[in-house]
Specification:
Strand order of the largest sheet: 5-4-3-10-11
CATH topology of the largest domain: Rossmann fold
Largest sheet: 5 strands, parallel
Radius of gyration: 22 Å
CATH superfamily of the largest domain: HUPs
CATH architecture of the largest domain: 3-Layer(aba) Sandwich
Order of helices and strands: EEEHEHHEHEEHEEHEHEEEHHEHHHH
Number of strands: 14
């Protein structure tokens, strides 16, 4: 699957500003901060969209989180190998296609393209590997067969299920107890009450063909992948085991990231990911922003209304990635004022030295991607005066490299 075009990321080292520190982030599984050090390219997997509607601000906030992480790694001088999936066949997509009378393939292609356009407009760095579920069916089948050899697969009717307790570490990503898992599993696409399952939490690996639904021939029979095994298979194929970060929204902690990690660990005998990083939820008028609630604020809608994508980006950056927050119309107004102030500042012939504010931005981002603190540092610089003739060029480059904002 084709990714989107990303902007070049300038090197601050080339401008005489050295390199940044190793980033530290909050690891959900550990429940504490973790330093993301290591040798070679950093390996990042972020769960992608199910393309049955346009990109809302919750999506954008999540992918912006991992854009910042990539920029922190690049500023450190480390390369990044980034993989993201597209769940281009799944129940929500098929249900929306039926409800709207649109072919499911056409709907998925249309919304994936709109997502690409939104990501490019927001200057989100693209994944090296952008992989759809449909094109990964062979990978899924191979992984299910490895799980079969490990004795962790059983059939319910013609569907195949993963026995979650085949993994002694099951539950270590979320840290939740069985009651909490069962409740959330039912709310997030699971089927804890299905007769024939060995454990209510066992999850679907391969769904046998249903009348009127898409299916593919395979060694497992005719059918299609379950959700969790899709990401496990794609991540293992493109990043291997023990990769640096598994990322996504906090609503993916359980069951999605828990299940994917267990499936991969049982199949390989190795750790799936070293750290799990999750972005908070974005609400609107007191509720979580979601397609099902019909309360989406769309990136494409803001763009169509004439809002500068850099202002949209700044509005999102004004909230710490781990916080849950609500969108109000005042968000974009404040972000546009901030963007205008920064652009006026970098258009001056002289300004305060850039070194201290670049150091403050780097320190903020290295401290659990604290974008609001980085923005405050630039605000203070923009409000100050000075006689450094090189500062404005250096700041323009730093804001581009570290925050992804084109001034």
């Amino acid at each position: 699957m084709r990714s989107w075009s990303g902007p070049p990321v300038p090197s601050l080292a080339d401008g005489g500003l050295g390199t940044g520190p190793v980033p530290v982030v909050h690891d959900t599984a550990a429940g504490e901060a973790r330093t993301l050090d290591g040798e070679g390219d950093a390996r990042l997997y972020v769960c992608g969209i199910t393309p049955y509607d346009a990109t809302h601000l919750g999506h954008a906030a999540t992918y912006l989180t991992f854009d910042l992480l990539q920029r922190a790694w690049l500023d450190q001088g480390r390369g990044v190998s980034y993989t993201q999936n597209v769940t281009d066949v799944d129940d929500p997509l098929l249900e929306r296609a039926t409800a709207t009378g649109i072919d499911w393939v056409e709907l998925a292609e249309r919304e994936t393209q709109l997502f690409r356009e939104d990501m490019a407009a927001l200057r989100i760095l693209p994944p090296e590997h952008y992989i759809g579920a449909v094109e990964s069916i062979d990978l899924v089948v191979d992984l299910v067969e490895r799980l079969k050899k490990a004795g962790a697969v059983y059939a319910v009717d013609d569907d195949l299920y993963f026995e979650v307790h085949a993994d002694p570490g099951f539950g270590s990503v979320s840290g939740w107890d069985a009651a909490a898992m069962a409740r959330i599993f039912a709310e997030r696409g699971g089927d804890p009450e299905r007769p024939g399952k060995r454990d209510p939490l066992d999850c679907l690996l391969w769904q046998a063909e249903r009348p009127g639904e898409p299916a593919w021939d395979s060694r497992l029979g005719r059918g299609r992948p379950g959700w969790h095994i899709e990401c496990a298979a794609i991540a293992l194929a493109h990043l291997g085991t023990d990769f640096d970060v598994q990322g996504g929204g906090s609503d993916l902690v359980f069951p999605h990231h828990e299940m994917s990690a267990s499936e991969a660990s049982v199949a390989t005998g190795e750790r799936f990911a070293r750290s799990y990083v999750h972005a908070g939820m974005v609400g609107f008028e007191g509720e979580k922003m979601s397609k099902s609630k019909g309360n989406l604020v769309l990136v494409s809608g803001l763009r169509a209304a004439g809002h500068d994508p850099m202002a949209i980006r700044l509005a999102l950056l004004s909230h710490h990635y781990r916080s849950d927050w609500e969108w109000f119309d005042e968000e974009i107004t404040a972000a546009e004022a901030r963007l205008a102030a920064w652009r006026r500042a970098v258009d001056r012939p002289t300004a305060a030295p850039a070194g201290p504010v670049v150091a403050a931005m780097r320190a903020a981002l290295a401290d659990d991607l604290d974008a609001p603190a980085a923005l405050a540092a630039v605000d203070a610089w923009a409000a100050a005066s000075g006689d450094d003739t090189a500062a404005t060029t250096q700041l323009r480059t730093a804001v581009d490299a570290l925050l992804g904002v084109a001034l």
